TrEMBL record:
Listed Acidic residues bias regions: 209-225
InterPro entries: HMG_box_dom (IPR009071), HMG_box_dom_sf (IPR036910), HMGB (IPR050342)
GO molecular function: DNA binding
Region feature (Disordered): 1-48, 102-133, 175-225
Compositionally biased region (Basic and acidic residues): 20-29, 175-196
Name of the protein in its database record: HMG box domain-containing protein
Stored Gene3D superfamilies: High mobility group box domain
Segments traversing the membrane: none
DNA-binding region: 40-108, 134-202
Keywords: DNA-binding, Nucleus
Lineage: Eukaryota, Sar, Stramenopiles, Ochrophyta, Dictyochophyceae
Domain of life: Eukaryota
Species per Swiss-Prot/TrEMBL record: Florenciella parvula
Biased composition (Basic residues): 8-19
Domain HMG box: 40-108, 134-202
Length: 225
């Protein structure tokens, strides 16, 4: 009788374990943020605008390539563009950025839509940009572009951004080495400014990540006194 009761209790334990395995725990699924279809379309970068304009052409020229391979071709073509051509897309990006900013100023989301800035990394693990990071150095051509844009607009009121950039690009090519040197000097100074700011920025970030290092150096200074 003792053996039979022991076997029965073992069977009950096994059946209870199998039931526990068969019934998975219910996990609360995270709530997805509701998107407003009428929300302003986000501003696109110069590269995104360029990619949108050449995507169909790349597809037609490379029908056997995968999406990833076609994207690499687009990126290569973008890198091969001259400063004048890139300037046209950057002008468009600035216009699109202003459009988005104005649209967001007038936008009122519905009460059931939460509009909060995303934190941390994006979809593909790309770190969010630090607004305090140093502004990249400007090239000689872009100093020339900034210097002549308004005059070129006034002289060519009917031209599109792309056409206007081509006009400015042609003017840049017509400059003598002496005339270009003025803008090249500005670019050189800005490159040095950027290098100094990057060094200071990295030092500040390192101190924030490891405050003990700064404390140790200050303690060492007080000991020497």
């Amino acid at each position: 009788m003792m053996e039979e009761s022991a076997k029965a209790s073992k069977k009950r334990k096994k059946s209870s374990k199998s039931k526990a395995k068969a019934e998975p725990e219910e996990r609360a699924s995270p709530k997805k943020r509701k998107k407003d279809p009428n929300a302003p379309k986000k501003a696109r970068s110069a590269y995104q605008l360029y990619a949108n304009s050449v995507r169909e052409e790349i597809k037609a020229e490379n029908p056997d390539k995968s999406f990833g391979e076609q994207t690499k071709i687009m990126a290569t073509k973008w890198k091969e563009l001259g400063e004048e051509d890139k300037a046209a897309w950057q002008e468009k990006a600035e216009t699109d950025k202003a459009r988005f900013k104005d649209a967001m100023a007038d936008y009122e989301p519905p009460s059931d839509v939460e509009v909060t800035p995303k934190k941390g990394k994006g979809k593909k693990g790309k770190a969010a940009k630090d607004p305090n990071a140093p502004k990249r150095a400007t090239t000689a051509y872009f100093f020339f572009l900034a210097d002549t844009r308004e005059t070129a607009k006034a002289e060519n009121p009917g031209l599109s951004v792309t056409e206007l950039s081509k006009v400015i690009g042609a003017k840049w090519k017509e400059l003598t080495p002496e005339e270009k040197s003025k803008f090249e000097e500005k670019a050189k100074a800005d490159k040095e400014r950027y290098a100094e700011e990057v060094a200071a920025y990295k030092g500040k970030k390192a101190a924030e990540e490891d405050p003990m290092e700064e404390d140790d150096s200050s303690d060492a200074g007080s000991d020497s006194d």
